[in-house]
Amino acid sequence: MHCWRIFWAAVLLIFGGTAVARTYTVEDLLRTEDLGALAFDPQDRWLVYERQESFLHMSRFDMLARAAVLRSRLYRVDLRAPFRAIPLLPDTHPGTILYGFSPAGSHLAVGRLMGERWQLGIVTMATGAVRWLDLSPDYHPFHVTLRWISDARLVVIACASGQRPWWLRTDSLPADRLPPRWAATRSGKAPAVTAIGSGRFRGTGDRLAENRLVLVEAASGDATVLATGHFLAMAVAPDRDHVALIEQGEAAPLPQDRAVGLIDMPFRQRLSLYDLRHRTIWRPCADCDVQGVVQWSGEGRSLAFVARRAAEDWPAARPFRLDIERRSLTRLDGHGIVPAIAEFPDGSARMPFAWRGSDILLFGRPALNPEGRTEWYRLRENGTAQPLTAALPEVAAELARVGRCQAAMRTADGPWCLDGPQPRPMQEPGKGFIDTIARLRLFSGEGGGPGQIERVETSPSGDIKAVRLLAADGTKSLIVAMAGRTALIDRLNLHLRNVQPAQARPISYRLPGGGRASGWLYLPPGAAAGRQYPLVVIPYPGQINGERPPAGQGLASARFHTNAQILAGGGYAVLLPGLPSGAAASDPIPAFVEEVDRAVIAAVATGAVDPDRIALWGHSFGGYAAAAIASRSCRYASVIASAGVYDLGSVPGIFGPTLRLAPELALPIGSQFAWAETGQARLGVPPWIDPAAYVAASPFYRAGHITAPMLIIAADRDPSPMQQAEQLFSALYRQDKDAQLLTYWGEGHVVGSPANVRDLYARVFAWLADTMNRPRKAPCGQHGSPPAGLARRAPNVPSG
User: Fold this and answer.
1) What is the helix (H) or strand (E) element at residue 765, kind and residue range?
2) Is the pTM of this model over 0.85?
């Protein structure tokens, strides 16, 4: 108990204190810090964590999507003494991440970005010395590409000589590849061409350069190439005798008799098994297209995966079990359970499964009831299937190890452990901390809310906890707690201590279908009672709000686009409506149009919003929604659409500004059709089957109905094609309507270079100030008809 009293004394110091309040600005956004990955060594001696420094400290600003690497600096904490964080390496710039500890904790593998070079380093923890190798380990936040097999050796998927991992170079492909190709054309001495094929010509073009499976000696840095191939990920057996490798195979055709989904990847994935004892490689299922990850059983003698074979489609995929010693492969389709395809927040689709002892847990449905609810089933070795979650009100597709539970499932009712014969409820990690914070009512800043625990991570022994705390003022803290000692390790975002956040108020409203939805209304800090503020509505179809304000709009969220805190700091009220129906773009009038209207009515009813000064600002799919709403409503005095798509028929098949330069990496043809057919647009079919549906859902073809001034924001490296922004702007220009087009060069889906971010918000504020205070050009309901000279040429213009 004594250590927890010390813990909460430290917490009170963290969350307490007052200062002269000010509002949140763009400069606060750019200075945001965060905590990245964290690792305990297996012996509970060391803690190493990634401290993500201010965005202003990055070495380059054309890779915002890779900021987690560009901002990262490693710190270590001696858990025996003196409990102080010190830099792990003498880096002068951030850009170093951790891969993992060796089994005894004596060494740590790290990676760093130095200019255009990505290097593997091995740190000796006792001395802090680091050996940098002439080796570029592959890196991907969702793939395992490096594992220790002893305290002296590790296996690494290494990139081709001199190349960065593709995940770290896609953003810079235009800068890397366009100039030499232009130079080749200018010289006339070498062709500058890419070639790709379909059907019989599907193998046309360059293939991804082969990489290597490498065995590295930690003491000397000597590297031995074990195998070459197109390796994507690995899984080392618990006994460390075998490595399962996922390889990129040939290009995969898209389905012809169903809509394309996220499960339809551009390349097949093959399984290889490398024997570290005998230095041999084995491909146990040459015609298996492996879906997602592979998993070893606890003793390391069996391997499980889900795959389709030969010409099978994904609905025919089944789990497989590979016995390593017998070299026998068994297809588990006798249990009567069909794997379910689940989509995850990272944009991937997988068929989830996990080991439980010698049995396999599968997320699926009975083959005899394909419309039934998906459940977790235990596939027994005797051929029977035991439903594990049928009695629970909700089932989640993802399992994780939490504490002593090997298969923990998190739902709205809390976590459940599926290790036993029946699910058992688990206590939330850190639940006691959360309750204590609630009792202490720890506040930060005028009108602030209680602090919260972001994450609790436990050491291998279970005796030490690393607690990440987020205060209401955006400051973050890392605390380590163990028997007899609790220490404050680090504090971040101290520049936010005197920032007064926007006032977040929940609102509720009835949906057109009869249900209810919730939204969040942010008012400027210190908002005066009885005053009506101009309102900016930020729509995003599919958004579902909870009982707490959206985490992505907090002071520490590092949200570069549609930032409610910046807008509120500038004197605007901001509405984040819940739009649970999603897109349904195939409907004559998308449901989100009226859902946003209901939310706005509820916001106006609070008395804090000026009903005559309401604007829309949508980003990405929200940019599409903003333009679609503007073409069907004249409630809004101003509209901003950033990084949106406006002609849905041209979305499928656009390669994008980066991957069109490197088709060998993976062209997004399938993912673009998946977005249109089964994803956010939900149009169900490709454009040539129902072109009218695509036209009806596209704001470009409804540009004649847009009456509000529109600010359109685009970027040349955005996968949402900037040509569509130019297309929508041109439609408004053709009609001499008030509009501006901003194009940011060198930027991607989110504008992130500091000078560009400052410019964007300055222009947004200037635009809102100008357009929200002018009288409307057209009264509500007057959309106008085509001019007489064009009317006979436009018989099919969208109505409504």
Assistant:
1) helix 754-771
2) yes
